[in-house]
Structure formats: structure tokens, C-alpha cells
Design goal:
Layout: E1 11-20, E2 23-33, E3 38-43, H1 49-56, E4 64-69, E5 72-73, H2 79-85, E6 89-92, H3 104-115, H4 120-133, H5 149-161, E7 167-171, H6 179-196, E8 199-203, H7 209-213, E9 216-221, E10 224-230, H8 231-234, H9 240-247
Parallel strand pairs: 3-8, 3-9, 6-7, 7-8
Antiparallel strand pairs: 1-2, 1-4, 4-5, 9-10
Helix pairs in contact: 3-4, 3-5, 4-5, 5-6
């Protein structure tokens, strides 16, 4: 699945294999993520999409194969070097993963206080700017429990973006949202990706919505990427399994026989 780009891919997975609970989840997977673009990975529930994301950020190591970030095989890095490389990344989880005991402002400020030596006035300026960018102006004093699902996603995105990541990972960012809110979050992801220019990798089951927001779409099936192409080309695929998945809108999501629980 080779992608021709003016610059080298930001991320390359080469022959990645992974078993969980003795069951194969990734089976010699090859994938190249173009730099500065939004790539969405689709596929059945239980098929290994979240496992793929965890390999990209180094939370899981492959049993075999390579995960290359800017040409560096992260599976070979020690703890210190891996932590340094992870500074390139940010991740928006399904539930936004906010600290319930902290206000929205404090949630967004948290990584700045933990990982930088910025002064409090500088932190306040960056946090307020980021809240404005995601449409949460004036909401910094509120706590996560006081926010709607869509607003929690926005707060989670603000916290992820405040460190200026080069690579953003989105794990089912619209799960649990109604179609209107899901569309709003998708639009926000596209808007921020275009504005900041980070490389984005999103796992999603939102068919056909992802075709309108993604630069590239890849399908994970039976442990490998069976199709990857620019979004408009992907929709014209002749691959029968991909065609069927698109035609049914990615639903119902049937867990494949032998899939490992939690290996989404």
C-alpha cells in the first residue's frame, strides 16, 4: 500500500504482527501515513483498529515487524527515548479522558504545567487561546460533569492540541454522540488539522461521513490493510469486502470469530 508523496511518510508500519491472548490481531500489516494529512482507518469492531493506534504511539510493541516514526523504529527505543519521541504525539480518546476533579481550564493547562516551564501568564494565554479555537470561550471554569458530550470532546481536543503536537491520534472521536454533534466534531477535527497542519490518524466506523473529511482512507480487515487510497478513490474500490462494508455503512459491526475482546 505505497503512497506517493512529496515528503516521506510520517509513520510507516512494516510487516507488523501482534497476538493478544494467543489470538493473532495484526498479521503482517503494512501501512504508510502521509505527513500533514488526515488518514482514517475503518474496519469491523474487534478487528484491531485501536491496537493499531497503540502500536503507533508505542503503547504496544509488535511481536514482529517495524513501527517507524520519522524513520525511527520506536519498538527499538528505550524508555527515555520513547518518552521523548512521544512528545510528537497527542491522542483524543473516545471519552475525552478528562480529569473530573479539574475544571476545563485546569484540564487544558495540565500538560503545560507538567511538561513545560512556561510562566502562569503564558499558560493562561495559551489555554484561553486554545479554548477559543475549539469553541469553548468562557467555559474554562466549568467541570467535565457540567459539559455535554460534544463539549467534553472539544475540551479533550483543546488539551491534546495545547502542546502543539506533530501527530494527532483520534480513537473513535464521535462515539456516543448523535449525528448532528458527530458532524460538528468531525468538522472541528478537519478545521484544526488544516489550521495546525499536524499529521492525523483517526479510527472510525462513521460510514459514509469519514469520506467527506479524510484525505486518505484505509481498511483493516483480518489483520491487514486490504485497501488504502485517497478518499474519493477509496469509494470507487472494486475490492468486494471493502465494497460490502461501505454499502452497509460500516454497520452492523460484527466481531470476527476469534477476535480478542478489547482489540478494536
Amino acid at each position: 500500500m505505497k503512497i506517493t508523496e512529496a515528503s516521506a511518510p510520517a509513520i510507516r508500519l512494516v510487516g507488523v504482527e501482534k497476538k493478544l491472548g494467543g489470538q493473532p490481531v495484526l498479521k503482517g500489516l503494512h501501512l504508510e501515513i502521509p505527513r500533514g494529512k488526515l488518514t482514517t482507518v475503518i474496519g469491523q469492531s474487534g478487528g484491531g483498529k485501536s491496537v493499531l493506534l497503540k502500536h503507533i504511539i508505542g503503547l504496544l510493541k509488535p511481536d514482529r515487524g517495524q513501527v517507524l516514526v520519522d524513520g525511527t523504529d520506536i519498538a527499538q527505543l528505550g524508555a527515555h527515548d520513547l518518552n521523548e519521541l512521544r512528545k510528537k504525539f497527542a491522542m483524543l480518546f473516545q471519552g475525552a479522558a478528562l480529569f473530573d476533579s479539574l475544571s476545563v481550564f485546569e484540564n487544558v493547562a495540565f500538560p503545560l504545567r507538567e511538561k513545560t516551564k512556561l510562566s502562569e501568564p503564558e499558560i493562561e494565554r495559551k489555554v484561553l487561546e486554545m479554548l477559543e479555537q475549539v469553541g469553548l470561550t468562557g467555559m474554562g471554569h466549568k467541570f467535565p460533569a457540567e459539559l455535554s458530550g460534544g463539549m467534553r470532546k472539544r475540551a479533550g481536543l483543546a488539551r491534546a492540541l495545547v502542546m502543539g503536537p506533530e501527530i494527532m491520534l483520534f480513537d473513535e472521536p464521535t462515539t456516543g454522540l448523535d449525528p448532528l454533534l458527530a458532524r460538528t466534531i468531525h468538522d472541528l477535527i478537519v478545521e484544526t488539522q488544516r489550521r495546525f497542519g499536524f499529521t492525523a490518524v483517526m479510527v472510525s466506523h462513521e460510514i459514509p461521513e469519514v469520506f467527506g473529511i479524510s484525505d486518505y482512507v484505509a481498511m483493516l480487515l483480518d489483520g491487514v490493510i486490504v485497501e488504502m487510497a485517497p478518499s474519493d478513490e477509496f469509494q470507487r474500490t472494486r475490492h468486494p469486502a471493502v465494497r460490502e462494508f461501505i454499502n452497509v455503512g460500516g454497520k452492523p459491526e460484527v466481531v470476527p470469530s476469534g477476535a480478542v475482546q478489547g482489540a478494536r
